């Protein structure tokens, strides 16, 4: 049974999606897959919308798909459960850039819940996936919800930084540019396939220090410590 509890600021967006054809079609599909015995991750797909209230968002980091292995996905883009010993390669590169950019030592685990509680919205554009099948729930209806969530964040006038890593995330830029006073940072995805390659390598992009400085100047400091 899916937990639909979210912070009240997100509720109108979620309710409109659930009542519309995209939401109804997706929820029916998820129920059908569960009835067929499919293992769906994460168990709590709306967790980011509980941990990071709309009014508190300072940074948005967009992922694409939840991790599709057991014990990995936890409802926060790029984050994994605290007891997972082997970190996904993209998350390793995020920590590598944090160390290079801010001088932070790699954390003890890959859980990014502290970021979420400080105003970093860790949002995947598709919120569920089936075991061992990447992108299995893409283009099923989640994108209509997550596009609406991104647009809601952009419409709020408080200054925010959007970190768009890779072509999939960068395709969402038009949803943001309609807002005013936000900073959009773009680079390659942190995946090992692209993290060190042109045109804009993820390693060396300086997004964390840029965001920290830009937000601090506008009275909305952010802490990327873990």
Please explain how this structure is put together.
With 226 residues, the chain is of the alpha/beta class. It is 36% helix and 11% strand. It has nine helices and six strands. The chain has helices at residues 11-19, 21-35, 47-51, 89-102, 113-117, 142-155, 167-170, 173-177, 207-217; strands at residues 40-41, 59-63, 120-124, 129-130, 161-165, 183-187. A four-stranded parallel sheet has the order 3-2-5-6. It has a two-stranded antiparallel ribbon with strand order 1-4.
Q: How does the helix and strand content classify structurally?
A: alpha/beta
Count helical runs.
9
Strand content: 5-15%
Instruction: Calculate the terminal CA-CA distance, rounded to whole Å.
Output: 32 Å
The helical percent reads 25-40%
Physical arrangement of strands within the biggest beta sheet = 3-2-5-6
Regions with little confidence, pLDDT below 50 for 5+ residues: none
Number of strand segments: 6
Q: Helix and strand string, N-terminal first? A: HHEHEHHEEHEHHEH
Rg estimate, integer Å: 17 Å
**General form:** globular
Q: What is the averaged pLDDT score?
A: 95
Largest sheet: 4 strands, parallel
Characteristic key phrases:
single chain; 226 residues; alpha/beta; 4-stranded parallel β-sheet; two-stranded antiparallel ribbon; 6 strands
Secondary-structure map with pairings?
Layout: H1 11-19, H2 21-35, E1 40-41, H3 47-51, E2 59-63, H4 89-102, H5 113-117, E3 120-124, E4 129-130, H6 142-155, E5 161-165, H7 167-170, H8 173-177, E6 183-187, H9 207-217
Parallel strand pairs: 2-3, 2-5, 5-6
Antiparallel strand pairs: 1-4
């Amino acid at each position: 049974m899916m937990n639909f509890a979210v912070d009240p600021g997100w509720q109108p967006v979620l309710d409109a999606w659930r009542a519309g054809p995209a939401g109804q079609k997706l929820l029916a599909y998820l129920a059908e897959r569960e009835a067929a015995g499919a293992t769906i991750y994460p168990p709590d797909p709306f967790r980011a919308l509980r941990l990071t209230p709309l009014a508190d968002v300072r940074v948005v980091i967009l992922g694409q798909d939840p991790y599709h292995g057991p014990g990995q996905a936890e409802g926060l883009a790029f984050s994994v459960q605290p007891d997972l010993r082997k970190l996904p390669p993209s998350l390793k590169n995020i920590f590598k850039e944090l160390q290079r950019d801010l001088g932070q030592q790699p954390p003890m685990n890959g859980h990014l819940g502290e970021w979420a509680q400080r105003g970093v919205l860790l949002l995947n554009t598709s919120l569920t996936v089936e075991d061992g099948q990447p992108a299995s729930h893409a283009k099923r209806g989640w994108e209509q919800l997550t596009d609406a969530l991104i647009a809601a964040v952009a419409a709020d006038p408080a200054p925010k930084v959007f970190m768009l890593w890779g072509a999939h995330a960068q395709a969402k830029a038009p949803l943001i540019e309609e807002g005013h006073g936000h900073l959009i940072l773009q680079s390659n995805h942190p995946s090992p396939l692209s993290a060190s390659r042109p045109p804009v390598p993820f390693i060396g992009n300086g997004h964390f220090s840029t965001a920290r400085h830009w937000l601090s100047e506008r009275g909305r400091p952010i802490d990327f410590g873990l």
